Amino acid sequence: MIALITGATSGIGKCIAENLSKRGWELILTGRNEKILKELQKKLGRTQVIDADLSDRKEVFKVYNFCKNKNIDLLVNNAGYGIFGKFDETDLNDEINMINVNITAVHILTKLFLRDFKRKNHGRILNVASSAGFMTGPLLSSYYASKNYVVRLSLAVAEELRRDKSDVTITLLCPGPVDTNFNNRAGVSFSIKPVSAEYVSEYAVRKTLSGKLIVIPGLMVRTGVFVSRFIPYKLLSVITYGIQKRKKSI
After folding, report:
1. What is the pLDDT of residues 96-142, one digit of tens each?
2. pTM
């Protein structure tokens, strides 16, 4: 079995790579840091690496072309990051790059590998979104919006696969706060205690291999996502703003 993992040099992506390696999977890992990729290659064995900046769509196609004849069984769309700040004050170029990584790269790879998987009626896709994908997020507006895209795209594709009676599955990972480099990149701090990337990756891998559609690690986060459905959207935005603002003041 062979898995392609994007954003594999740290956090959830790295932990998923380590988890799958222990299960005997062969890996293809991609990320921007070639040095870390090569270190992982030596550590994990049976691993190929390809450095790529997924904010550049040419690099996204480079990754697909590298993998398309390698009989991939699992695609893990993990690469992504967030930008904190008021929408009119955040850097536009950085935001566009984030959208390219969080949305465009996920869209391209999901579409291309889905076509391959459907032709052989075999394969799994794990799209790493966030509990933010079910909400509106003032002060992290573009990040929340990007994860909403991943959530809605994945749910739509899942229904199409169900109606086609396909053996291909898509899984949507929607964690809450996770102890990764995400908040450092966004320039904020955790307002509640995060769970470990190791826990999230183990939970995600088990649920993905069993064909589960929506995967939300942690009872508190699952409860929060469920309850948010019943809160008026304006009030939910007020609550989310307060949560995000506290992150910057910690």
Report:
1. 999 999 999 999 999 999 999 999 999 999 999 999 999 999 999 99
2. 0.90
Give the integer Cα–Cα distance in Å for 78 and 65: 18
Distance separating alpha carbons of residues 155 and 111, to the nearest angstrom: 14
Mean pLDDT per 10-residue section of the chain, whose length is 250 residues: 96 96 97 95 95 97 96 97 95 97 98 97 97 92 97 98 97 90 58 83 96 93 86 87 74
Q: Please list the active-site residues.
A: 143
